[in-house]
Design brief:
It is rod-shaped, with a radius of gyration of 31 Å. It is mainly α. It is 71% helix and 1% strand. The protein has helices at residues 8-62, 68-130, 169-190, 197-212, 214-222, 233-243, 255-292, and strands at residues 227-228, 231-232. The chain has a two-stranded antiparallel ribbon.
């Protein structure tokens, strides 16, 4: 059987190109916004100076004999006072606008998370079934798991959940890990992440781990319905898993087992990224509740 070929370089190049374009677009937007603010400030100052000059000329023409020095001193004092007031107001407006953008970004993240959170829960349960042999109890909401490929020996067994009836553990895990990738992709595409960039990085870490491991995931799934000679490929791979030494390595494994090692690596990387995401989203939720004057939300019961 021809094994699927993993070509991460093209995907890396595509992601880098997308990141570069997004960064350039954001920089152009920032420069345009700053230029507009500068133009407004300059126009305001020019309008003030023009008004003072007109007022001064009116005083000179209509006021008769007046001390020019007093007029100049009074005018300059007014100019500086108004300039100072304009600068202060500009700073206040900029600060308020920055807080508004930050608040809008946070609310957008929270809206997306309301959709993402149930998928995270469903993903964790299915992932932990895959990495837990039948003789052990599944820790349903365990995020970062320590396991070996030998612990994955029962991944082709039926799912323990009623909603997954008729499907294997690996099948439902594959479905929900890919669904979570789509949820994170929408989050990254829809939110600018000018303030909460670390959350974007956590989501991207999950997306990248899932994308790089997709070929191995497809191969491991295909073993369920593939024959090699008179034996099913699934039984051959399961025998390889059982016979693999505890200190086995990817480089020494047979070709079919290498995909299981890649799947093992993908699950570990997903767990690291997801743990970081959940930690950051809890911080964002608490920040939002504090701003609204509400009680902070209780921590989600993850392990």
């Amino acid at each position: 059987m021809k094994m699927p070929e993993i070509k991460p370089q093209k995907l890396i190049s595509k992601i880098k190109d997308t990141d570069v374009l997004n960064n350039k677009s954001k920089k152009r937007a920032d420069r345009a916004e700053k230029a507009q603010e500068s133009r407004l400030l300059i126009l305001s100052l020019m309008a003030i100076v023009f008004y003072i000059v007109i007022a001064w000329l009116a005083v000179v023409i209509l006021g008769g004999k007046m001390d020019v020095h007093d007029i100049v001193r009074g005018s300059m004092g007014s100019v500086f006072a108004l300039i100072f007031a304009v600068i202060i107001m500009d700073r206040i407006n900029s600060h308020n606008e920055k807080k508004k953008r930050m608040r809008d970004e946070r609310r957008a993240i929270i809206r997306h998370n309301r959709i993402i959170q149930p998928v995270v829960d469903m993903y964790l349960v299915r992932k932990n079934m895959v990495i837990t042999p039948n003789e052990k109890t599944v820790r349903k909401f365990h995020i970062k798991s320590t396991f070996t490929i030998k612990d994955m020996k029962d991944m082709y067994g039926p799912s323990e959940l009623v909603s997954d009836v008729g499907k294997s553990k690996i099948e439902v895990y594959a479905f929900f890990q890919d669904r979570l990738r789509h949820m994170f992709t929408h989050l990254v595409e829809d939110v600018d992440f000018n303030t909460y960039s670390e959350l974007c990085n956590a989501a991207m870490d999950y997306i990248n781990a899932t994308s790089y491991g997709s070929s191995a995931m497809d191969a491991v799934l295909s073993y369920q319905n593939t024959l090699t000679g008179t034996k099913s490929m699934k039984s051959v791979v399961l025998n390889m898993i059982r016979e693999e030494p505890e200190n086995g390595k990817f480089i020494d494994a047979p070709p079919a087992l290498k995909n299981v090692y890649l799947l093992h690596q993908m699950i570990n990387e997903q767990g690291t990224a997801l743990g970081k995401y959940l930690q950051l989203i809890q911080s964002i939720l608490k920040e939002d509740e504090n701003e609204l004057g509400k009680s902070p939300p209780s921590d989600v019961d993850y392990e």
